[in-house]
Amino acid sequence: MMDYTKTGSFIARMRKKQGLTQRQLAERLNLSDKTVSKWETGRSAPDNSVMVELCEVLKISVNELLCGETIPEDVYISRAGILTGFLLLIVILAVTLLGLTEGYRYIAWYLDPVSFVYILAVTVLVLYISGMIPDFFRAFGIGYAKRVTVCENVVKRALTAIKTALSALLLSGALSFATGFILLTKVQTNMEDIFPSMGVAMLPIFYAILLALLLLPTKVRLKKLLLDGKCARN
């Protein structure tokens, strides 16, 4: 739960840092100055409809607002890391397209890069729709940081993002396998031809499990942080 008093005090500090009065901040948000006063005295808290705009005006993140304190930059994943991830995805897509050409067709058949990209794409889409992309990337910075200075609520959001990614990976792998199996049984009628193709059809599940195993250590570390009480209280 959000600590209204702590968050209100934080809003007041950040407002003064930007050189704004309560009235000026209220005007920026199309609210009354009484509403801002209630926030800063801990009698109420900003609702979801104004959180993003409030954070933009105060030049803070939503997680910092929820925690009621400034979060050090070292717990966030760097932009270079995010860029590297996107470049890696582009490389995978390029390999996939090459695999569909004549020269790499057999490699594509046995490695099935299309399924690998499909599983990644579904997972990223689920995280994007859920608004968990920042929390997902932040989970690695928190989980493997030498010193954790973020609040409990931020760790919980990061853990939720990792759990969502794990569920999306396994579900997309199962759906991809089921679709491939159905198509295979319709195209192939000879059992001798079905069995070799079945191994390729099972690759999506293998990819999903492999990626899930890579995320599990991060999930375990985040849960350990919460259980050990090493993160700041909200």
Describe the structure.
By secondary structure, the protein is mainly α. The protein is 75% helix and 0% strand. The chain has twelve helices and no strands. Helix 10 packs antiparallel against helix 11 (191-201) and helix 10 (152-187) packs antiparallel against helix 12 (203-228). The longest helix is centred in the C-terminal third of the chain and has 36 residues, at 152-187. The model is unreliable at 74-81 and 102-109 (pLDDT under 50).
How are the secondary structure elements laid out?
Layout: H1 4-17, H2 22-28, H3 33-40, H4 48-58, H5 62-67, H6 79-99, H7 105-111, H8 113-129, H9 133-143, H10 152-187, H11 191-201, H12 203-228
Helix content: over 70%
Strand-and-helix sequence, N→C?
HHHHHHHHHHHH
Any idea what the radius of gyration is?
24 Å
User: What would the principal axes of the Cα set say about the shape?
Assistant: elongated
Strand content: under 5%
Short recap of the structure:
By secondary structure, the protein is an all-alpha fold.
List the keywords.
234 residues; 0% strand; 12 helices; mainly alpha
